[in-house]
Amino acid sequence: MKTWFHSWRAAIRIARRDAWRSKGRSALVLAMIALPILGVSALDLTFRSSELSPAERADRMIGTADALFKDADYGGVPIFQDPVGDMNTPAKDYKDMSWPSGSTDVTKTFPAGSEVLTDTSGTAKLTTKHGLLVTQVRELKAADPIARGITTLLEGRYPEKNDEVVATSHFLESSGLSIGSTLSARNFDRPYRIVGSYELPDDLNADQVNALPGAFLAPHAKAVEKAGLQKPDTDTTYLVRKSGGFTWNMVKEINTKGVIVSSRAVILDPPAKSEVPLFQKENWGDFESSAVGNAAELAAIGTVVGLAMLEICLLAGPAFAVGARRSRRQLGLVGANGGARSHIRAIVLSGGLVIGVAAAVTGTVLALILTKALQPYLEETMGQRFGAFDIRPLEILGIALLAVVTGLLAAIVPAITASRQTVLASLTGRRGIRRSSRVLPLIGLAALLVGGAIALFGSMISEQFIVVAGGSAIAELGVVAMTPALVGLFGRAGRWLPLSPRLALRDAVRNRGRTAPAVAAVLAAVAGTVAVSTYMASEEAQHRAEYTAQMPHGTVAAFVTEEGGRDVPAVREAIQRYVPVDVRADVARVSVGKPSCQLWDSGPGCGRFEVVVPPANECPMYATLPGGGDPSEKFTPEQRRKMLTDDWRCKEGRSSGMYVSDGGLLVGDAALLKVLGLDDPATVKALAEGKVVSFNPVNVDKNGTYGIKQITDLAAADKASEQGKPAPGKVTSLPAYQVPGDEKSYGVQALISPATAKAAGLATVPLGTYASTDRLPDTEARQKLDGELTKLGSNVELHVEEGFVNANSLILLSLAIFAGLVTIGAAGIATGLAQADAEADLKTLAAVGAPPRVRRTLSGFQCGVVAAMGVLLGSAAGVLPAMGLLLSEERQQIRFHEDSVAQGWSAASDVPYVPIVIPWETLGGLLVAVPVGAALLAALVTRSRGALSRREAT
To answer: Alpha helices of 374-438 — where are they, by DSSP H?
Structure first.
């Protein structure tokens, strides 16, 4: 034991001295190992620090209160909830009945003697420096001790008067306002002065303004109603403080009155799952991941970590080999003085240990420093404050241990190689006879075959992506193991090459010990890049084929459904100003009840309309049944499939597409027909004659009429719907013209002119506009248009039909750049080792009269040969796993399609399309540009002239 300790102690001292002498090489290897450790450690620190403890979560949710009470909006019926209060459902099952709805008096559930603080929220369009901004307005007495922890005051003070507010820092930044500025709201001119700024620790990006209770929301609602608009919705919760807090049994008791309770005591000490009634209900649970899912996740993480360590070892291994080669005389002296081969292995392994420990310490320390220094930036990026700077020592040590293990693994092969050198060969500098292993290629071939079989099984039989990925990883490791043998095969091409590339290829083949790891590192990086690029290119082709245009190419559309279209004229003007408009078509929608009601608004005075489908035109699978129920259940799968294929009433019509309004009915003129490319003379004439232009034959009865039902009693309509009966309402029948043919109408199912709507007694409100363009608006115009629409403070639905846009091009470029950098780095390391080995040959070439450029060109070709071999092998190895994953995905989609066809929910002709597309541009760049670039870079950084000296006698 003592001998072992002293021998390793001496080896570590020698390795530390060598590492300090070769600072450049040591720094390179240290950086390769430390950077991943830095990234993973920083990720761990960030993740753990962003996780909130139960106490921190309670403070941000309920301040210093003992509980938060909230109406479940189920009309006061008993409910079940989870311990935190995030999930809830009525205690009774309402499978075939409508769910209860309505409010309950939460204040009646407060225990006697409780201290209560109300927290009410709503929205308003507040005036800013730039226009209007939809903002959450909160009425919470934030200065009250009960609310401590919910907000964090940054500057100024909390409001003390009814005309004062405090705003979040994000709102101040977005609005251009500052402390001391005044603001008001649309339809509400009362000014409020900003007296401070604050933030919400859980939502740093919130646009929120806080006022005293009763100071803003109630008077704002009155002003809005006075303007003829719908009263804004508000939500009120109650922060309750009670001596002794609220136990889980008390929470369940309050749940029987339809109230949700988030209790501090329950959050800090949650009950067992068996004591939570919600988790006992069918289809409800705590949503924890399964053991199989956890195992698959751990397997995926382990695979990624293993492949990353392999990549680092392949890159760092040659660097350790360089150190061992340059220290071979020193290692020979160790052997000459009685050192055993184990001592030589210990010295080289100690180099990996020293670098690994240094990388672990460097990466960990830098991760701690950078994460702490960048904490404000990380918090802003994540949108929430850290709970605490949480350091988990075991996790950090485990990550650091990976650096040590990686350094040792990277030094194993150089250590074994160095220990096999004879003392005489090490002292004289002779290379000796190098024989590559005959067993390793066989093991690699076996791994390749087994991995390929697993991947084939996963793609052709199994439906688990993890099987394909695992088999592909095993096959790739097999190719890595076969790399020395594959490098030897490349040597046969040397007879057809000129002098410099022939020398470079011969040198690479004869010295496979340093060439193979570099080629394998390039292979691994390129294989991953090619696999991901192939998968993403194939996915892009699939999305391109499945893409459905929402409007004719180049068309711009904008809709506003709130406040009765008050901002529609401004939207139309903005589009006319910033978009190269060819034809503009203004459209409106049919309105029932108050003009200010939005679509499907159920407030007082609101209604809706329905397009009446003639009974003879209803698809039997979707027809309403008396008493309710699913009509499709009456038919067999074969009957449903036949209806989808052959029954014109059940087919997806040409009018399918972008939602424009209820029933796809718009009010407009012939300009809309021109914008949509549907302006044939007969259609334009029918619109001018006062007919409804229909693009969906289902809505036109046998007499050629189109029915519109105006529903004013929404409660009666909902009750009739529950009973499977038609909703009561006034039906207006208009003459219709059914457009022949199958031209796509982009979601517009019917069009009537404003004059026809007025004559029929149909009220309309502005909806928006369509505009065809001479060309697509450029980026500058889009930014100006978006800015102008943002100033309105309205929810403007803007659509620009640009055709299919590939969102993956930047990712593919990034992958190609990453693979190129790894390739150049690995090839550069191999070239440095080759130059160290070939110094004697270069001196001989110079002595016999070789021109100075030979040294430079030889270095360039040495680097290019390694890069070319790695890229070629990696490209071949990367395409196959991507094809396996795509075939597996195709099988899965086909199975879903077959199940859907078997159940009668899809037509047999709708076969999924999953293409396999090779990214030739990426492959071309890797196969040509990267090796050529690596060769040119190596040639540029190599000196043409070396010091001419006497060659040592051997």
So the answer is: 375-382, 393-420, 423-428
